[in-house]
């Protein structure tokens, strides 16, 4: 990676880390206010919550929606759009070593571990889906929102739960470990959706133990989200999918840039196949973010 590429990636990671830290601090302050207020303040807050609950629009998080037309948009971003964006405004991946190669069915394995409640996973899934679709066919997608009570509430996204993927080049193993509904008895405070295998849990813990977890054949790891979920605030699924086709869109530069970087990482473990994807202009430019 050249000096300008390293500087751009470092700046993007610092920007994302700062915004994530700010969101966590804001969430902590809200919790302290709820826990440490006087009785009168708590009563006032309760009354306010009741009033708001009666008048506000219901939260977006709810049953998943299946849409073949929407899925086709997400998985069908034109090559020209990817080429125009390159790495976009996304941060890069981290090279990892000292791990045995991760593979399945004789092909390099891409392992994703996340949770449907997670706003950072919500942002990343768009890019993962777009990248994987350049190597094969991703099916069974359904569209959801992240938790309405977490930071970046109701972030529009898709879920890999019960999805399928066929490819000649790479295997994709998605584990949506937790759902959106809360459950205080679990480690992440949300209901279990899927359970990772013992080996997946060990790998998850060894390489960071945080969501979203994206491991590309034990050669590249997502160190944090590629962009901040606030970029999707207030957008519908259709708006996000449409922006993914627009090189001038900020959302497109975030998502498609991240998808190009993920694609470049996958190409590095598939021997540069398929050639039309791996040698494209957008992927070549994104390779500097690895």
Describe the structure.
By secondary structure, the protein is of the alpha+beta class. It folds into two domains: 3-55; 68-289, no CATH class. Helices cover 43% and strands 17% of the residues. It has ten helices and eleven strands. It has helices at residues 3-36, 39-55, 68-74, 79-85, 119-132, 198-206, 237-243, 250-269, 275-278, 281-286, and strands at residues 94-95, 103-104, 107-115, 136-139, 142-145, 156-159, 164-167, 171-182, 190-192, 213-216, 220-221. Helix 5 packs across helix 8. The radius of gyration is 19 Å and the shape is globular. Residues 3-16 and 21-59 have low confidence and may be disordered.
Name the descriptors.
290 residues, seven-stranded mixed sheet, 2 domains, alpha+beta, two-stranded antiparallel sheet, disordered N terminus
